Amino acid sequence: SEKLSIALIRGDGIGVDVANAALAVVDAAVAKVGLPALSYEEITAGAAYYKETGRDIEPGGEKRAGELDAIFLGAIGLPSVRHDDGTEIAPHLRLRDRYGLYAGVRPVKAYPNAPQRLADPRAAEIDMVILRESTEGLFFSAATHGRPNFASDHEVRDTLRITRPTTEKLFHFGFRLAEKRKARGRPGKLTCVDKANVFNSMAFFRKIFDEISPQYPEVEATHNYVDAQALDLIRKPWEFDVMVMENMFGDILSDLGGGLVGGMGMAACAEIGDEVGLFQPAHGSAPDIMGQDKANPLAAVLSGSLMLDYLAERTGNHRWTEAAELVETAVQSGFEANRLRPMEFGGDMGTLAVTKELLELLG
Amino acid sequence: SEKLSIALIRGDGIGVDVANAALAVVDAAVAKVGLPALSYEEITAGAAYYKETGRDIEPGGEKRAGELDAIFLGAIGLPSVRHDDGTEIAPHLRLRDRYGLYAGVRPVKAYPNAPQRLADPRAAEIDMVILRESTEGLFFSAATHGRPNFASDHEVRDTLRITRPTTEKLFHFGFRLAEKRKARGRPGKLTCVDKANVFNSMAFFRKIFDEISPQYPEVEATHNYVDAQALDLIRKPWEFDVMVMENMFGDILSDLGGGLVGGMGMAACAEIGDEVGLFQPAHGSAPDIMGQDKANPLAAVLSGSLMLDYLAERTGNHRWTEAAELVETAVQSGFEANRLRPMEFGGDMGTLAVTKELLELLG
Ligand SMILES: CC(C)[C@H](C(=O)O)[C@@H](O)C(=O)O
Ligand SMILES: CC(C)[C@H](C(=O)O)[C@@H](O)C(=O)O
């Protein structure tokens, strides 16, 4: 069976701690299903590296990352290290752009005994995915302009761009994801979240959605305006399955979703393009607790599970999916048995203790 | 004392029901403090009117609305009546634009016995304002382009525009609002919500905020990224006071805020410019329950209270503020005594019963 290589960017702060934890769990699951061990090629990047060298990623690193089978990233950025204009060190935004990582997959799932913010007991049933387009939309401006550059002190404009090719790919991805989830017992529903009542770009977005939806008769296709969706995510998040939306909307609603089920400590993320996939927890580098064995590695672990799933698609070998499911099941059953009690959730378990417990749960 | 005139646009659906209810309460409060009765000039507008006439507002109505002392609006729009391209009938977007109603004030406040979605008991302390810039930002595109018009079937762009004059006025408004709230016992904090880590326009927005904040030493000025703010509104909304942000961000976060404290049924809204102020509940026209005495009038009533406050600023006569406070106190004490039980919240009181109770509470 094939030998796969992962580009590993640990990055800054707790990125290092959680990447190490996640990959230990990933490796154990891979071994358990009898697949050859993943090999890792480390690529140095981040704010600490930028401070030292003036570069945010090692020479050739951006190119090399895209040549391997997947990219795994810990976290990038430090509040104390910024560009001159105050913006963050964010080489991962360039990776999204360079490799066309249009499909930002952000699962939001309630685990038993993990914190829930909503009073309604149905919040225990939350199991949804925010599918965030990740290369264009309003972030078109971020990618093209790079750093702030005020052409005038009177006004500054940014551009929200929706293109047909990316949007079509995004919706096909969304419908296929809803189909796959349906096969696993979820409702199989895709909600197009937009603001088609006001913006040309969003009416275009919805029009393309309506063109494509008849190709997926098994999936229930619905619409919601983004403001109403924010409200509905408070009022009845358990009614949603997959929601697909423009980049900036997805940035906001995925953090909202994270908030519903315990903050960013459970927020896994995959960013997938035609040739390249990048996997990282959606949380930041929390330098105040770095290296202290306090970080919650679960968002990174769940991102590792998304990576294993991606390797199954990439290779056509379903055993990678089995490995992904082992990781997911370890997290699920660990919470059920109250064996996962991360400090972030007021528990007594640091990074290593959570990792050790997961390894035991994997058996 | 002066005689003031209000442009009254009842609009569609329950807009009629809640406008009537709100103005009955407003009139009672005005009488109670001994001010001359407000006079109302009705202006016909909305989707039903559009269906009949092909116009969304009566001839000359837009101009006349701006010449009176304030505009009070019920609700506009009907799902079954749309422009050919599927977009909504929204003459109020034109009013925002024409009269430069830059300051969109959307209070979010928890009332006792009204529904709360968060499990944490501190949610009872939620008392904040989303200040949504309401004329530019991404809505610049809505105002200029009007209806969807796909120049190309390959890509469609919209523009997010931040100008210095509007942004300066917005922040001055925000700081003054935080000062006023501080005088009434709130923390006196203004949070600039942006995405300055990614967008030129947002870095410009934050830069102007940082220029202006030293002029208001009594107000604690802070920053938050919009994604983190969405999360914080789930995690610890009780820590916020006034939040100021771009138009689209404000649209999303104000609905999120509404969701925290009982849905849109309590969502009051003021949109204020240099010369004109418009007041309306932020909810829709809910035509399914129109004319059935089921609508919750409280968002409209609280919008009426915002209008009275505005009339105090406009005339320099503080007795209008007293009337505003009477209305606010009636709602507060009505909930405290469990005398306000709107059907929307599972209670037994229709529009008229809620209105009658408020009139009794006003004494
Ligand atoms: C750090 C920032 C540029 C990034 C984004 O907005 O995409 C982050 O918020 C995320 O969600 O991955
Ligand atoms: C109806 C729509 C155009 C409007 C807006 O987005 O401004 C509404 O959502 C609001 O918040 O007042």
UniProtKB/TrEMBL annotation, chains A, B:
BP terms from Gene Ontology: L-leucine biosynthetic process
SUPFAM superfamilies: Isocitrate/Isopropylmalate dehydrogenase-like (SSF53659)
Repeat found in the keyword field: no
Stored InterPro entries: IsoCit/isopropylmalate_DH_CS, IsoPropMal-DH-like_dom, Isopropylmalate_DH
Residues in Isopropylmalate dehydrogenase-like domain copies: 5-358
Keyword terms: Amino-acid biosynthesis, Branched-chain amino acid biosynthesis, Leucine biosynthesis, Magnesium, Metal-binding, NAD, Oxidoreductase
Protein name as it appears in the record: 3-isopropylmalate dehydrogenase
Source organism of this protein record: Vannielia litorea
